[in-house]
Each structure stands twice: as C-alpha cells, then as structure tokens.
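ok so I'm stuck.
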Amino acid sequence: MVAVPATAADHDHRAKRPSVEISRVQYDSPGRDTRSNRSLNKEWVEITNNTRRAVNLDGWTLKDEDGHTYTFRHYRLDGRATVRVHTGQGRDTRSDVYQDRRNYVWDNRSDTATLRNDHRRFVDSESWGHHRHGGRH
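replied:
not stuck anymore, here's the structure
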C-alpha cells in the first residue's frame, strides 16, 4: 500500500497551499513493532517544498506531542522536492534523512507532527487519531 497524502480536505482551513508542508506521514510502522532499525525507518514524515526555489531547512524542527524533536542540520530542500524524515538510523541523502533514534516517535493512536522554521515560527502540522487511514496520513 502507498501512504495517503495529506489532502486539501485535511487542510481546508488554509486559503492556499503552504510553501513547505508536511505532505505525508507513516506513523505506524508496517508489521510488528520490533524496534529494529528497519522497522524504525518504516516510520516517517515527508516534507515537501511546493515552490520552485530551494529552501534552507537548517535549524527547522519537526516535533511530536511528547516533545521528541528532530532538527535539520545543513539541509537544503530543492524546489518541488520532498524529503522523508525517518525515525531510525541511516545515512542522510537528498531525499531521506534520519533522526538516529532507537525507539518509535509517532504515536499510533493519535499524535501531531509540527514543523517550525529556524525562527520557531509555525510552518505546518499534521494530526491523526486511531480511526484514521490505518496508520497512514
């Protein structure tokens, strides 16, 4: 199955699409939660740059309701590009970055992923509950 995108209906309170947004979330790692690095990396959040210009994400944060925070370091998101932020460990590339954690971050029942810029200003958020999309949003 493919992760379900955050649709316009999910963000109907906005007049237009944000420049940078949380576009998809896989908050429930498929299969058993074994805490293996492979399983941890199947839990992720995608962030998309909807503009034509690259955006410097250095200092931007992605945070859950419990305060687990990932801070982007020296990362530039190209125009019209998406980066997937994985929970586990790995080697950062242009399309995938890793939080280097040894435990799951996103709550399967309900949680909120919040993206803030380097000035701590709100950029976007995505919330879910146990009744939504079978672990994807």
